[in-house]
Amino acid sequence: MEIPSPYGSSESKGDQHTLHYELSVPHPQADVWAAIATPEGLPTWLAAAEPFEQREGGAITLRWLNTDPKGKATVAPGQVTAWDPPRLVEYTVDIHGRIRFELEPAPASVGGTLLHFTNELTGAEDTRLDCLAGWHHHFEYLLSALAGHPADWSAWQPDRWRKLRTEYQRGRPPQ
């Protein structure tokens, strides 16, 4: 089940990139928190987390469950660099740099949760585009997981990611 996610933006200074996403998630903050900050929730849309010491300064290793065509998965050891349940979690990990999720209740007229996401990373332009497309795709998985349809990583194919990457490269919002 694919649920479209909002287009992300980025700012770059040389090889330093900051990616931003703002999502209005039609689910309670507690449910979104469970998806982004627990070892049970993270694999449903992003990556397995083992170890995962749920506290500031705790160890975390994210192991992506989707693989490249050669069967290689990204493994990113790091640290929990901010922890303020149920509104803020930040992971600083190898490869992806600083990954920050901030949650707040959406206005009562809308309901649900506002998710503010920032990823600060270092790399070439290709890395920036790869990550914009990757986070976009994973946020689609997050919205599906919260709707009761966790990712089936065994069926993952890179087609959607490739399409998103092309759209980000062209500077147009993905469809």
Low-confidence parts, pLDDT < 50 over ≥5 residues? none
Alpha-beta content class: alpha+beta
Order of helices and strands: EEHEEEEEEHH
- What is the residue-averaged pLDDT? 93
Strand order of the largest sheet: 1-2-8-7-6-5-4-3
Largest sheet: 8 strands, antiparallel
The best one-word shape is globular
Span of the ends, CA to CA: 15 Å
Strand percentage: 35-45%
Work out the radius of gyration. Answer: 15 Å
Explain this structure.
The protein is globular. The two termini are 15 Å apart. It has an eight-stranded antiparallel sheet, covered by helices on one side. By secondary structure, it is an alpha+beta fold. It has three helices and eight strands, in the order E-E-H-E-E-E-E-E-E-H-H. The protein is 24% helix and 35% strand.
